[in-house]
Amino acid sequence: MPAIEVIGLRKTYRRAFRSGHEALRGVDLSVPEGSAFGLIGPNGAGKTTFIKSVLGIVQPTGGTIRVLGGSPEDPRIRARIGYLPERLHLPGSWTAPAFLGTVARLKGQTADKAANLRLLERVGLADAVGRKIGGYSKGMRQRLGLAAALLGNPALLILDEPTDGIDPMGRVEVRRILQEEVQRGTTLFLNSHLLAETERLCNRVAILGDGKVLREGLLEELARGGSRWMVRLAPGADAGALGAAGFKAAGPEGLYHVEAANVTELNAALDKARASGALLMELKRDGQDLESVLASTMGVAA
């Protein structure tokens, strides 16, 4: 069962005395249960409208939405979703434990002070539990928002720019927490402009542009360069022997490309190179990073 299944989703925002703005134009998307799924695209692509539609915050103009096997309008379904919005508004006069207690009650959960304190420690706010939220930095507010999303061990986490305002070391901590949740079986749905974070966290990606899904699939399939690998060898390797083994020079000294349809073929080619005296320094699939995938997709779309 998909965690999120959307068919023919459309959303038009009506404007007085003007033609409406079509934010979503027939989106079809299926997010596998237990996956780490990233939604990327330029500003104005419809990403936040899509998320709000999935959550039942925005009413779509057309199409169908199923979340965790039910309707996003169903309170029982909503209780199984953890959500961190892009713009997080928090009560400045409250403390973090009081805020989590209120969120838990709103979700129909029993407020557990000890569990909430452990959750605040998990997101790095153990030293700030007695402080008013109004004195928190933006990064601390994001951590508190993440803690609220994690309340009750949700089956689905929908996070809109979760590391916005968090310093690089904090991003590492947040990434670790989200990876732990995916390992636990939680479905992660992530929208972030930080493509490197999406690349590190997600195994599937959809690219949204002009209200339509332009590409979708496993990240490694979208990014990889077919069956070609990039190999860096120590200087002094026998160029003739490498050529006979299928290695082609790719620019700077020591950098080669080799075609291998599978791991067996790749290791056979590397064995031939090593047999000629070559020393392997680096090996990676010759593919694009997510930024390049997005740029090339938007170029095609244009």
Give the total of domains: 2
Q: Please state the structural category.
A: alpha/beta
Principal-axes geometry comes out as globular
| Average pLDDT taken over every residue | 90
What summary fits the major beta sheet? 6 strands, mixed
What does this molecule look like?
This protein has 302 residues and is an alpha/beta fold. The chain folds into two domains: 33-57 and 70-206 and 217-222, 3-Layer(aba) Sandwich (Rossmann fold); 225-285, Alpha-Beta Plaits, CATH 3.30.70. The protein has eleven helices and 13 strands. It has helices spanning 47-54, 75-78, 96-106, 113-122, 138-150, 168-184, 195-201, 219-223, 239-244, 263-275, 290-301; strands at residues 2-15, 18-32, 36-40, 62-67, 81-84, 156-160, 187-191, 204-209, 212-218, 228-233, 247-249, 255-259, 280-285. It has a six-stranded mixed beta sheet, sandwiched between helices. A four-stranded antiparallel beta sheet has the order 11-12-10-13. Strands 2-1-4 form a three-stranded antiparallel beta sheet, with helices on one face. A hairpin with a 2-residue loop joins strand 1 (2-15) and strand 2. Helix 3 (96-106) crosses helix 4 and helix 4 (113-122) crosses helix 5 (138-150). The two termini are 34 Å apart.
Architecture blueprint of SSEs:
Layout: E1 2-15, E2 18-32, E3 36-40, H1 47-54, E4 62-67, H2 75-78, E5 81-84, H3 96-106, H4 113-122, H5 138-150, E6 156-160, H6 168-184, E7 187-191, H7 195-201, E8 204-209, E9 212-218, H8 219-223, E10 228-233, H9 239-244, E11 247-249, E12 255-259, H10 263-275, E13 280-285, H11 290-301
Parallel strand pairs: 3-7, 3-8, 5-6, 6-7
Antiparallel strand pairs: 1-2, 1-4, 8-9, 10-12, 10-13, 11-12
Helix pairs in contact: 3-4, 4-5
